[in-house]
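Consider the tokenized backbone below.
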């Protein structure tokens, strides 16, 4: 989904960056996966409205890593955890859709 920030310039820049990333991934024949903030929070903490601190602690606990001072790194790792947890479900959905098409 498109993220809308309070600052219009930031919203436009994020949209441009998102578009460039999607085009680059598709040009390289890479799959694109998108998760909402609530999906990531729920995958990491079990609660879709978790705080940044809760996500940070759970990411550190799940990955058995020392405290990291860069929040952006932890955000990226939280998205990776979400994708890892969702991947099995996505594969099941894909198989079900293929069976439905074949019938």
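A designed sequence for it:
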């Amino acid at each position: 989904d498109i993220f809308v920030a309070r600052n219009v310039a930031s919203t436009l820049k994020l949209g441009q960056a998102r578009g460039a990333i999607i085009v680059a991934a598709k040009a390289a024949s890479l799959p694109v996966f998108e998760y909402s903030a609530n999906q990531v929070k729920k995958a990491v903490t079990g609660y879709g409205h978790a705080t940044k601190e809760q996500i940070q602690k759970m990411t550190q606990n799940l990955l058995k890593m020392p405290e990291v001072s860069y929040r952006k790194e932890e955000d990226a790792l939280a998205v990776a955890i979400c994708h890892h947890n969702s991947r099995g479900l996505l594969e099941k959905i894909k198989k079900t859709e293929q069976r439905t098409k074949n019938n």
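Residues 93 and 99 are 10 Å apart (CA to CA).
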